[in-house]
From TrEMBL:
Family matches, as Pfam families: SEC-C
Protein name: SEC-C domain-containing protein
InterPro entries listed in its UniProt record: SEC_C_motif
Superkingdom of origin organism: Bacteria
Amino acid sequence: MVEVTISDDFYSEVQQAVAKHQPELSVSRTDSSIILEGRFLVYGSDGPIDSSNGVFDSYAIRAEVTELFPAQEPVVFEIGGRIPKIVDRHIFPKDGDCCLGVWIEWLMKAPNHRFATFLNGPMHDYFVSQTYYETHGVWPFGERSHGKLGVLEAYGDLLGVPPDEKTISNYLQLLSRQKIKGHVLCPCGSGRRLRQCHSDALQRLSQQIPTFMAMRMYRSIAPARAS
């Protein structure tokens, strides 16, 4: 496997985003990753997120970002011991990293994939949610189920279908094709041909979800093949 090194341009982009939006984080780099470490500030919701807004909380964090961003999700850790390392607090118990959400859902919904958009979006929202949960016992933005079911819920929302694995797999398999033919069976499971069922909906989805992204989504939920 070829190791991807950090480019000066991407390192500069991360430095600028952190300096503007999270000035109490340090930024350093190795050959293969960028390391953020320090106090992550949680700001109020009035106006853009930057250091001029009121800080109402903070978390000690460490994050690792690779040159493959945004294709590869950054790994974020809360290192102050404040958040219990359990799935109900959206921490992966095995490695202790934060579950910021379903990454592909963010890729599909985000206005752009700049690092600042990630910093002010899923990363900031995660820690806002943790603070709110500590105070109120509920998650302010709702929450996905844990594990694969949460991924299916996110994909179902993107596709406009129920979070049923077979239905979602059928849709994603079709959307992974360069050309969708009307004589195939409709992925909804009706038993009818696509042209007689959800053809218009599939065409709209094919314009919204690129074939490579549909394939990535499909592979993320497909059962592992026996070796």
